[in-house]
Amino acid sequence: MRHQNRFPRHWFVGALSLALAVSTSAAEPTKTPKPAPTIPEVELRGQVVCLAEEMHRLHEADLPTGHAHVYGFKTKDGKFYTLLRTKLSEALFDDERLRTKELLLKGRVFPKSQVFEPTLIRSVRNGVVHDLYYYCDVCDIQSVSPAECACCQGPVELIEKPR
Q1: Are 118 and 106 in contact (CB under 8 A)?
Q2: 3-state secondary structure of 21
């Protein structure tokens, strides 16, 4: 008469496979991801421009009549940066009033590029630096966006407040 095992053979094989997998993965060194390199913040002073139009003006780049605007930033010393469109910089693209002002931008220039990510937008009027923000007086809420108030869906007002 054959001896009956309590556990079927496939359970034993499964348990052995699991133990082998656990011991193999424990033996492999874990690789920790390298932190992203820190990119220092810079401060740029100048004005938002259409890069296509500036390249046409300076270098006679051939532009179609109804070209799309490619917004960038021209510094006081004549350098050009491509603006990265983010939640914090959206106003530079959406609010024409900001494109007429002298601005002081803080942010990062990504390595090996002229791509600039603004993180803080201020204006300069008569030599005085101003904080720029949008304000809903109904809800008493400040915002970085010219979009409707997130609370009441009403209009917001552009505020320039001397520092």
Answers
A1: yes
A2: helix
Look up the pTM and report it: 0.74
Residue 107: strand pairing partners: 42, 118
| Digit-coded pLDDT (tens) for 23-45 | 544 455 667 777 767 999 999 99
Q: How far apart are CA 73 and CA 146, in angstroms?
A: 19
* Continuous segment of H or E residues that includes residue 56: helix 51-59
Distance CA 116, CA 108 (A): 6
The DSSP code for 28 is: S
Pairing of strands 103-109, 80-83: unpaired
Paired tokens of 11: 């359970």
As a whole number of Å, the end-to-end CA separation of the chain is 96
Q: pLDDT tens digits for 51-62?
A: 999 999 999 999
Q: Tokens in use for 78?
A: 């004549």
Q: How many CB atoms neighbour CB 159 within 10 A?
A: 13
Token pair for 90: 């959206």
